Amino acid sequence: MSYRYRHNPNNNTVLPMTEDKFFIGVIVGFLAKCGADFIDRIWTKMTKSDRFCDSSSDSSNNKGCNWNGCERSHSTDSETSCSSSESLSSNGEVHGNDREIVAIQGDKKTPVGEESPLNYDEIKAIADFLLSKTMYRCQIGIICGSGLSELGNLLENRTTIHYEDIPHFPVSTVVGHKGQMVIGLLKNVPVVCMQGRFHPYEGYPTWKCALPVRVLHLMGVKSLIISNAAGSLMSDHRVGDIMIIKDHISMPGLAGRSPLVGSNDNRFGTRFPSMQGAYNKKYREYALKIGEEIGLKDNIHEGVYCMNGGPVYETPAECRMLLNTLNINAVGMSTVPEVVVARHCGMLVFAFSLISNKCVMDTDSENSPNHAEVVAACASRKSDLKVFVERMVLQIYNDLQSLPLENDKSYWKLLLGK
Ligand SMILES: O=P(O)(O)O[C@H]1O[C@H](CO)[C@@H](O)[C@H]1O
């Protein structure tokens, strides 16, 4: 009988062993190693694909997960983005790696950290995906603010696409934002409408808040109607009034959180875009006229909108500063990134605030804003807004038909004002 020798680590001796036992040992060792590798692989896969997903195992969410999470083919970054084996804690804390940081909000997990903006081809792929879902080619887009999703229900013969089913798209986490895109006809005009937007306070970088605007641009949208709910600082504004935005102050933008931070792709627009005339003057004039024609003369104003990063409503001292020092008329937590990106790529913008509450100026006041009231105030104005938006769409559509062709120099002069 031949012997092999085996090391005994307990007493540091070498024990003899029969040859057949030795081979059995080798096979058992090999199988154990394979098993461990297999379990390790499965575990890594589970923790990676869980990164952006809803914890439920519903199949539509899994689809969203694949697109939003590790399957994004982002040039050379894809390896880094997906190779981390970090997982999410169950206690709602933020976890991070060097590429992406995620937070848990309710049952949804959203990114809150640095992530590189999608490139032109990736955004084009989203636009093509959406175009493949409809036969309509829309020149007009609408973004619905808090409590204003009803505007999308005006569309006839519509196709609805949920945000979680759109490649690379964020998901809506705020009450009053439905989280879907509808494409259809409004008074026979093809229109694409976002029923729900994204805000920086949800954890999204500003480029991601404005991502849908680039998607709409590559879908062929030329004019954008943007709505929001906002608190008014003006004593002559009432809840339910409409404020047509003529200019803005962006707190995040001034603090370096512009949606255009990062490398610039000239196919979208220039490195240093001007925001002069960002809110199209002609559209503002149409809106004032239409407001009067539909009996809203006393409820329609023009003003300057300020974007607060949120989610905290302004303190009374901040409200006094916004009014008295900065001459702001209304304040909200959105819209500006969308406007900046829209203007960057030459879209024409019309934006309005539905005044959902009056800002509280008195530090000792009993009143304070809350989101339920904001949503309710917007919803209560839906029939007036329906007529207002329908009329604006018809007017804008008419104008677009008389635009020169895109390869004509005067086209860009009209769009960019130069
Ligand atoms: O701007 P929209 O999305 O309409 O919503 C506004 O309402 C919310 C606060 O009540 C904030 O999100 C604010 O920005």
Compact overview of the structure:
With 418 residues, this protein is of the alpha/beta class. It has helices at residues 19-49, 59-68, 78-83, 120-131, 206-209, 211-219, 251-254, 281-293, 316-324, 336-344, 371-379, 382-401, 409-416; strands at 3-8, 13-18, 95-96, 101-105, 108-111, 140-143, 156-162, 180-186, 189-195, 223-232, 242-250, 300-307, 330-332, 348-358.
Enumerate the strands of the largest sheet in spatial order, edge to edge or round the barrel.
10-13-12-11-14
* Name given to the CATH architecture of the largest domain: 3-Layer(aba) Sandwich
SSE string, helix = H, strand = E? EEHHHEEEHEEEEHHEEHHEHEHEHHH
Q: What's the CATH topology name of the largest domain?
A: Rossmann fold
Count all strands and give the number. 14
Query: For the terminal residues, how far apart are their CA atoms?
Result: 96 Å
Helix content: 25-40%
As a whole number of angstroms, the C-alpha radius of gyration is 27 Å
Principal-axes shape call? globular
Number of discrete domains? 2
CATH superfamily of the largest domain: Nucleoside phosphorylase domain
What small molecules are bound in this structure?
1-O-phosphono-alpha-D-ribofuranose
Kindly provide the name of the CATH class of the largest domain.
Alpha Beta
With helices defined by DSSP (H or I, 4 residues minimum), what is the helix count?
13
Beta-strand percentage range: 15-25%
Unreliable residue runs: 11-15, 44-100
Question: How does the major sheet shape up?
Answer: 5 strands, mixed, barrel
The averaged pLDDT comes out at 81
